[in-house]
Amino acid sequence: MIVRSFNEMQDEAARFARGLLPRSEGATLVALSGDLGAGKTAFVKGVAKALGVVEHVTSPTFVIMKIYALEGQKFNRLIHIDAYRLKGEHHLKVLGWDDLLKDPKNLILTEWPEQAGSALPASAIQVAFRYSGEDERTISYEGVYKE
Ligand SMILES: Nc1ncnc2c1ncn2[C@@H]1O[C@H](COP(=O)(O)OP(=O)(O)OP(=O)(O)O)[C@@H](O)[C@H]1O
Ligand SMILES: [Mg+2]
To answer: Residue 73 has what pLDDT?
Structure first.
């Protein structure tokens, strides 16, 4: 799937968000991979907007994790993780990670999932982003969620 502007990315992220269904086994996890500037945070902004978040969503690069409360949505919380600065799973564990994973009402979107090591279960929906032109990004979905 190719998106040709930031706004198209927002629309695609909204479409993705609408298709998500909470799972009774635990949190819904989404792993967002791709290089710097590939559009991972732009995608999270679109998901957040579609789920009614009015706060300004910025990349949690230094704080690692930001939690947004959702009102009247299928999820109660949108959790945005930027694992860029993480060194393995131990740092996520101290953030109360195990409890966050258990709650079916959590939607967890993780940038730089490879930095989170084994903390991110393999059941995560995989979304890969690629820079394919100045204003163009290519998105590929893998796993549970299909285009
Ligand atoms: N089609 C597009 N989709 C998404 N973003 C786009 C697009 N075209 C241009 N951009 C711009 O590309 C940048 C994408 O940055 P973004 O922060 O989303 O990347 P990132 O993958 O989160 O990078 P990082 O790994 O540094 O966190 C933004 O400045 C955005 O405005
Ligand atoms: Mg980012």
So the answer is: 97
